[in-house]
Amino acid sequence: MTLPEHAARRAWHAAINPLHSTVYFSPELPEEFAALGVTDRSTATIASRAAAMGAVGAGTVAATFYNYRHDFLARHLPAVWDTITPAQAVAARLRAADRTLRRLLGEETVKSAELAEAAELALRATEACTRHARTLYSAHADLPVPEEAHLRLWYATTLLREHRGDGHVAALLLAGLDPLEALVSHSATGRGMTAKWIKAIRGWEQSDLDAAVERLRSRGILDAAGELTAEGKAVRERLETETDRLDAAPYEHLGARGLARLAELGGGFVATAVAAGAFPSDAFGKAA
Prior knowledge:
The chain is an all-alpha fold and 288 residues long. It is built from 15 helices and no strands.
């Protein structure tokens, strides 16, 4: 690595992933899908991300998304493809991203030179992404690059998000963390989703969470209060370090100066989006 330590990780968490993720919490996404006859929000969210892979079923999505409960996915897939096609779902998500970013950032920012600069920096980083063993990244990389700058930026953050995510799944397997153990241990850091949203979005039950907590306690990853132990913190750091290693190429390709500029610009856009209510106040942290 020739970049400052953890620079790519910080940029991804602060400026890349949250910018992409705004669409999953927006009212525009379910609205676009409802207009096509898909009225369940969970169905819309799952289909919007899965559609790049085609008319896939619950098994494929459970494998690639990693941390969803399979029977929860099976309530939505493959039935949604009887209502809309994957191509319609891809187009609906892009329309939702367009409306979401215009609402959160404002028209002046959407049309700004700074946003166009951020889009080109992010797209430059994606030039070094790799396809092998990266199913979600590779599927989304087959989609066309949008023309408008704010959608180019959102598309690039999608690719960077899925590229890191695919590598993170491999790191989770090596770390021995199953889907729910991964979620629960991440929540214990204070940066993951709260239990309320794990249940609402990922389909898990409270009994599932309780069982995962007990497994992590038995392995010395969580203490009696549900906090990370010293070993638990080490497990999470090794996990992030391995994910960084697997995801280094795009940011090495962009270079330290380009990465710093993307982090500066993207971080500013994320701050604006958060101030505009991009994410629910109770979505992340340690709260139940």
